[in-house]
Amino acid sequence: MRIDAKNKDNGVILHLNGKVIGDGVPQFRHTIEECINSGAEWLIIDLAKVPLMDSSALGAIISAFLKLQEKNGKLALLNAQKGILDVLAITKLDSLFEVYDDMQMALEAVDL
Known about the structure:
- The chain has 112 residues and is an alpha/beta fold.
- The chain has helices at 25-37, 55-70, 82-90, 103-110; strands spanning 2-8, 11-17, 42-49, 74-78, 98-100.
- The chain is 41% helix and 27% strand.
- Helix 3 links the parallel strand 4 (74-78) and strand 5.
- The model has no long low-confidence stretch (mean pLDDT 95).
């Protein structure tokens, strides 16, 4: 898995590429924590190139959501593929996370 972090205004857009499973999850979790600890007020996680994500990756996203919420920040998911959308629906996380298929809409949603 590859992560490309792009700072924008007071937040970060994470573009992920590859499966977010197993050994790749600690890197994902660490990148998220670095963003939040560096003062990011919002996070957009672009999942366009992520075909698969395991439960520990979902846990990392939940943790990020909660940490940002404590700081009155926001988290949005972008371009989630069908398999990931199905997992979010089954776990009812689709009611917790805002999921967008358009970058501009995601940016407007996290704009504080």
